[in-house]
Amino acid sequence: WREIGNGTFTSSPAAACSGDGQRLYVCARGTDDRCWMAASDDGGTSWRYAWAAIGAGVFRSAPAVAASADGRNVLVAGRGMDDRLWLARSRDAAASWELAWSAVGTGVFNSSPALCLSADGSRCFLFARGMD
Q1: Distance separating alpha carbons of residues 87 and 102, to the nearest angstrom
Q2: Tens of pLDDT along 82-127?
Q3: SS3 call for 30
Q4: What is the pLDDT of residues 3-34, one digit of tens each?
Q5: How far is CA 63 from the centre of its chain?
Q6: Contact, 18 vs 68, CB < 8 A?
Q7: How far is 65 from 75, CA to CA, in rounded Å?
Q8: Backbone phi, psi, residue 91, to 5°
Q9: Is the C-alpha dihedral spanning 95, 96, 102, 105 positive or negative?
Q10: How many CB atoms lie within 10 A of CB 69?
Q11: Does the pTM exceed 0.90?
């Protein structure tokens, strides 16, 4: 066990990796309610960065993260302060975020999201428990 950089978090972490296990992504909600990420390109031996905020969105739940098989496509989801689900997307292995954050649909939820991504990164599946 070893620490990934310095950070203080208010949620459980979420993690995803590429099919070969080399690209690793870890997210958690910080004390400022923003979503923070750490990224590794060598299976966690070293960290390209630990920790960087993804956009300016604030959240009330733990995040979910998913990666494509090659690890280049990365999606992160969280339940916002408005109880809607919000999504961030990177297509360059979390070096930059082309989308951070966009609301998904109009539903409201009372759980943290679960997220998965197809191997080629073209399809995303996002789940959460509705208010009903």
Answers
A1: 5
A2: 999 999 999 999 999 999 999 999 999 999 999 999 999 999 999 9
A3: strand
A4: 999 989 999 999 999 999 999 999 999 999 99
A5: 6
A6: yes
A7: 6
A8: -115, 10
A9: negative
A10: 16
A11: yes
CA separation for the pair 35, 123 (Å, rounded): 22
DSSP class of residue 127?
E
**From its phi and psi, is residue 124 left (phi > 0), alpha (psi between -120 and 50) or beta?**
beta
d(CA 57, CA 115): 18
d(CA 85, CA 129): 11
Q: Which of 57, 48, 52, 53 is nearest to 22 (CA)?
A: 48
Q: Which two tokens stand for residue 80?
A: 């916002």
In this prediction, residues 37-50 reach a mean pLDDT of 96
Using CA atoms, how far apart are residues 28 and 65, in angstroms rounded to an integer? 10
Residue at 61: amino acid letter: S
Q: Where are the beta strands (DSSP E) in 1-132?
A: 14-17, 24-29, 35-40, 49-53, 64-67, 74-79, 85-90, 99-103, 114-117, 124-127
One-letter amino acid for residue 101 of the chain = W
Q: What's the rounded Cα separation, in Å, for the pair 112 and 19? A: 25
